Amino acid sequence: MAQLTDDCFAFGGPLMTIEDALGLIAERLPPVEECETIALAEADGRIAAEDVVARIDLPPFRNSAVDGYAVRFDDLAPDGETRLPLRGRLAAGASAEGVSARGAAVRIFTGAPMPDDADTVFMQEDVRIEGDAVLLPAGLKRGANARPAGEDLGRGAVAIPAGQRLAPQNLALAAATGHGVIRVHRRLRVALFSTGDELGEPGGPLRPGAIHDSNRVMLGALLRRLGVDVSDLGILRDEARSLAERLAEAAAGHDLILTSGGVSTGEEDHVKAAVEAAGRLVFWRLAIKPGRPVAMGVIGGTPFCGLPGNPVAVYVTLLFVVRPLLARLGGGTYARPLGAPVRAAFAYRKKTGRREFVRVSLRRAADGSVEAVKYPRDGAGVITSLTGSDGLAELADESRGVAEGDTILFHPHATLL
Prior knowledge:
six-stranded mixed beta sheet, 8 helices
């Protein structure tokens, strides 16, 4: 990717809103430049590097939408039943060359090409067969049950726009419109650290006062779900000089350095000094809860993002701050999660001027409506509030809180990824 200047994130304001942060990302971070061409079978989750244009009409020829009988509408009686002789049979994959429906009905199956002179198809369950003839009821409209060429997508139209994260349905469309390979941005390479003297490796012994490192496990899993190649570089201890050296080493060969912990302003929060020693750090004191102490900077031309230490804050900031950052760096587009309106079955007070994400679960109320119930504990370190909830309720910056019965915006955990 292009090298960044040390002040590319410079921001002189107080608390930055999420929208301002994302605007700064979009404005000042260039995406990676390297691309590659890969087979469709390998492209799930990758980001299209260019528009994928339909090479053929989809469908490529007129065809029947049902099993039935293809006819010329002009051969039908204007009133009452029409009797036509049966002529020919067309199954999917057959050629309609030389088959005519003039004055007759052609037996046809779903997906089979229409005879050149046929324009209407009767469903087989709507007709009666008498010997070598078919009796067709009145009332069917011209063109019924016949799919025109290009009905789904016309040749030359954009099937997949550049920047689209490819899903299985996108790959199906690419294949159907004549593509076997696709050009994509290369995967982002993210260096992942945890910081803190109190951390021990998951599954290992714990000395007194230590805790297992859960953030790195969660972040690695979330990043991989987002299609990122993760370099798990372990735990950085709380010593500014060694922190700076490790961060500088990680800058080479990675597109982003991501850490958790140590980005607040306490005496034992050493990431700030380490990043300033290795590059430049501009604190984004985001107007977000949980997750206010999010740090952004540049080390050796590589973006740096430091997340808070509490697991719930890590989860929220990864999904609502780092995810759009990854989309930008990876050449993709980012669509802010829409959420769904639900009724609150709880009351909650908040300060204005910051976005809050409250952990909630859904239930069916007595009147049949879906309502959200707040998880009983608020702490940003309560991991069970993530495993024991259905998702996050997003409360707007200007909101003063929630009253029971209010409509709130709900983001299911399952759809945030």
